[in-house]
């Protein structure tokens, strides 16, 4: 019986992962201004916050049957959805308050919002007039936020049977909430690649920009790299960067019998090979981990490192420019957070180049990886 239940859970998990996704991305050329100042970043931020808040408010009028149909699910966790909505409104209010501090410099999308009731009221009546300077952005943004909200609601609806980054299981799990306004942390999953691959390009590029990131490595990929290259070359690869772990293989750690061994083997290899770079952080593939794993992680001195800005740069999802557009839109919406790319993909290279260029004058900052998740 136990084996049958386990297989059933695994099949359910895999089916959910394999389900076709209408991944949200917004063409940033629809926004008529460049981010040549922090104030102009705030204008766009206020606009995205209000558009997302409008979409969120609209879903609250849906009954359970309609919401199930919209999310393509037969069973949904209403309590988890309610908690997600509460967290989203809290974050939206905080972010709008930050974004309206520059209203004296540019009053676009500035409304009197002092509390959550005010924000909900403004979100309910938010619309962009046909003769507005921003009308070309309004429709595509509305579509983006409806699709993006569905992504979040679907994950909440499946939680905790299928865990994800949308909610935490305890204080041992971190997602960047503690970052300051306009601060973002770059993270990369699924590496390292073979010598000369995307991992090499990204680490070299970041060093040249005097930036760093957390690279969450797979134990088997790191072992393969060490077997084919001197350990000193691998240490040079990650010079100036931080390294966490993703387990031995890129697979769900929520129903894998050997999940603990996967983590401890990877941690031992990484810490021994890269003691100057290693951070005691575990990034769960697909965001999936066990709800009862807190004791294990604490016994290993590990924290679970989640994220809140997903680039969706994996094969078959978004192209490089689409991924970059998505990340920038979510940076405007959330105003701080942990960005997830994959250094196993060429997509991340072009997306990162464009993203840094687009935000160079926007007044945002990049979190030092050594100070993250503290």
TrEMBL record:
Residues making up the signal peptide according to the UniProt record: 1-18
Domain NodB homology residues, every copy: 182-369
Domain of life of the organism encoding this protein: Bacteria
Any one of the GO CC terms: membrane
Gene Ontology molecular functions: hydrolase activity, acting on carbon-nitrogen (but not peptide) bonds; metal ion binding
Keyword Cell inner membrane: no
UniProt KW keywords: Hydrolase, Metal-binding, Signal
InterPro entries: Glyco_hydro/deAcase_b/a-brl, NODB_dom, Polysacc_deacetylase_ArnD
GO BP terms: carbohydrate metabolic process
Protein name: Peptidoglycan/xylan/chitin deacetylase, PgdA/CDA1 family
């Amino acid at each position: 019986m136990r084996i049958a239940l386990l297989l059933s859970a695994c099949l359910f998990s895999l089916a959910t992962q394999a389900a076709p996704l209408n991944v949200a991305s917004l063409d940033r050329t629809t926004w008529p201004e460049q981010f040549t100042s922090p104030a102009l970043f705030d204008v766009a931020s206020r606009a995205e916050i209000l558009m997302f808040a409008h979409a969120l408010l609209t879903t609250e009028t849906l009954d359970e049957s309609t919401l199930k149909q919209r999310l393509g699910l037969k069973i949904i966790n209403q309590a988890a959805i309610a908690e997600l909505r509460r967290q989203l409104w809290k974050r939206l209010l905080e972010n709008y308050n930050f974004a309206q501090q520059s209203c004296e410099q540019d009053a676009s999308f500035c409304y009197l919002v002092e509390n959550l009731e005010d924000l909900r009221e403004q979100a309910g009546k938010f619309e962009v007039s046909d003769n507005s300077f921003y009308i070309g952005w309004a429709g595509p943004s509305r579509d983006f936020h409806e699709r993006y909200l569905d992504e979040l609601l679907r994950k909440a609806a499946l939680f905790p049977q299928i865990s994800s980054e949308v909610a935490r299981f305890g204080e041992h799990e971190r997602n960047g909430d503690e970052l300051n306004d306009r601060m973002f942390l770059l993270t990369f999953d699924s590496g390292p690649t073979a010598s000369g691959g995307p991992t090499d390009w990204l680490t070299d590029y970041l060093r040249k920009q005097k930036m760093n990131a957390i690279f969450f490595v797979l134990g088997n990929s790191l072992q393969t790299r060490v077997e084919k290259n001197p350990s000193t070359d691998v240490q040079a690869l990650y010079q100036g960067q931080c390294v966490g772990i993703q387990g031995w293989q890129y697979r769900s750690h929520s129903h894998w019998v050997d999940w603990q061994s996967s983590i401890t083997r990877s941690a031992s290899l990484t810490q021994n090979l890269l003691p100057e770079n290693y951070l005691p952080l575990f990034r769960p593939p697909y965001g999936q981990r066990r709800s009862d794993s807190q004791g294990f992680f604490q016994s290993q001195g590990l924290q679970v490192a989640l994220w809140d800005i997903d680039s969706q740069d994996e094969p078959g999802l978004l192209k490089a420019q689409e991924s970059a557009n998505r990340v920038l839109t979510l940076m405007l919406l959330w105003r701080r957070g942990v960005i997830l790319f994959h250094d196993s993909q060429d997509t991340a290279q072009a997306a990162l180049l464009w993203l840094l260029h687009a935000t160079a004058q926007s007044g945002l900052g990049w979190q030092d990886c050594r100070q993250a998740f503290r």
